[in-house]
Specification:
The structure is a single chain. The chain is an all-alpha fold. The protein has one domain (about 1-100). The chain contains five helices and no strands. It has helices spanning about 1-35, 40-50, 50-60, 60-80, 90-100. The longest helix is centred in the first third of the chain and has 33 residues, at about 1-35. It is elongated.
């Protein structure tokens, strides 16, 4: 029982790191190409909704599960792109402005 609990906690921590890294790399690509950002919250909720299906695939075949997960992420990206609010700048726009003004070097 103790080992099962440790495995479950470790598995959740690993998935948290993986899931957190996805929007970071996507934002880097999207920002440089389209000046758009991915919402971490939206992406996380959509992944969470599909977690059981992913778990079933992992138990069946890890390689297939990873391929399916990556396909699913690509399919979810358009749903998770943040809407622009013309009345205020995005975080990345503010960072670019700060860098241009010399606040961040």
């Amino acid at each position: 029982m103790e080992y099962r609990l440790k495995c479950e906690i470790l598995g959740k921590r690993i998935m948290a790191v993986i899931i957190r890294g996805i929007p970071l790399s996507l934002n880097a690509i999207l920002w440089t190409t389209q000046k758009r950002e991915v919402s971490f919250d939206k992406l996380y909720k959509l992944i969470q909704e599909r977690a059981f299906s992913l778990l079933q695939n992992i138990l069946h075949n890890v390689t297939t599960a990873i391929k399916q997960f990556l396909r699913e992420i690509k399919r979810l990206i358009p749903t998770c792109i943040k809407n622009r609010q013309p009345s205020r700048k995005t975080t990345l726009e503010l960072l670019e402005d700060s860098h241009a003004l010399g606040f961040l070097t």
